[in-house]
Fold this sequence. Notes:
This protein is mostly beta strands.
Amino acid sequence: xxxxxxxxxxxxxxxxxxxxxxxxxxxxxxxxxxxxxxxxxxxxxxxxxxxxxxxxxxxxxxxxxxxxxxxxxxxxxxxxxxxxxxxxxxxxxxxxxxxxxxxxxxxxxxxxxxxxxxxxxxxxxxxxxxxxxxxxxxxx
Length: 140
């Protein structure tokens, strides 16, 4: 049981909180019992929202491309954070080339290209926390 003392408009009140069941509180104010309905307010989430900044289209020299189709995503294999990015948009890459280094489960992991192509977009930056399946690099 919690005890509180309030002064309202110069009057003193001794309030004992006997119990709370869902949204009904049982109180005793100066010896008189009361049941009080608690109006719950929606609390703002304490979890921060991550908003990625928009990325400007980089200027790049014309690169002879094979047939242009949908970009091929390279996804994060595990949840972790980006330690190092070794390519930039416009780079021509080979299959097996290391694109970036991630830290996941206290180990450094190499993220490698699974095909030859051109880096179209890198929606993450060094220090970003990523979840498994998040897109790290887009290849065309």
